Amino acid sequence: MVKSPVLSLSSGKRKSAIARARIRKGVGRVYINRRPLELFEPELARLKMQEPLLMVGDRWKNVNIDVRVRGGGVMGQASAARTAIARALDDWLEDPALTEMFKKYDRSLLVNDPRRKLPKKPGGRGARKRRQKSYR
């Protein structure tokens, strides 16, 4: 694969949320669905998405990252965006020490979480719950 010096693309998934990150030279702006990361709510989701940026240090200050996330809930989207950001930075910086640091801290920074919701089954309200029996 030929790497473009201007632009790098990456993606991340968690449950039914899919995030696509686009990284390019810039001044250190991070946008999630066209909204600055600093204004993203809830705070817990924002902190989760900032983890890879904090681990990289100041090296992300010369790039702009634009993340588009669809599907899932707030925390699923945050995890997907976190993976997409970490993969984009890893691809852009091309530092084996950074890759190793991401893997040691949390493998899900670079690898999608394969867990999915169990399908509903007959005889109950969900995947595991069953209707109660009464013999009286």
Describe this structure as you would to a colleague.
- The protein has 136 residues and is an alpha+beta fold.
- The chain has a single domain, classed as Ribosomal Protein S5, domain 2 (2-Layer Sandwich), CATH 3.30.230.10.
- 32% of the residues lie in helices and 22% in strands.
- A five-stranded mixed sheet has the order 1-2-5-3-4.
- A hairpin with a 2-residue loop joins strand 3 and strand 4 (35-36).
- Helix 1 runs parallel beside helix 2.
- The longest helix has 20 residues, at 74-93.
- The model has no long low-confidence stretch (mean pLDDT 90).
Q: Can you tell me the overall shape?
A: elongated
Q: Report the total helices.
A: 3
Q: How much is the average pLDDT?
A: 90
What is the correct CATH architecture?
Answer: 2-Layer Sandwich
E-strand count? 5
Trace the largest sheet across and list its strands. 1-2-5-3-4
Biggest β-sheet description: 5 strands, mixed
Output the helix-strand order. Answer: EEEEHEHH
CATH topology: Ribosomal Protein S5, domain 2
User: Radius of gyration, rounded?
Assistant: 19 Å
Q: Which structural class best describes the helix and strand composition?
A: alpha+beta
Q: What's the CATH class label?
A: Alpha Beta
Strand content: 15-25%
Helix share, percent: 25-40%
Contiguous low-pLDDT stretches (5 residues minimum) are: none
- Tell me the count of domains: 1
Distance between the termini: 69 Å
Oligomer: single chain
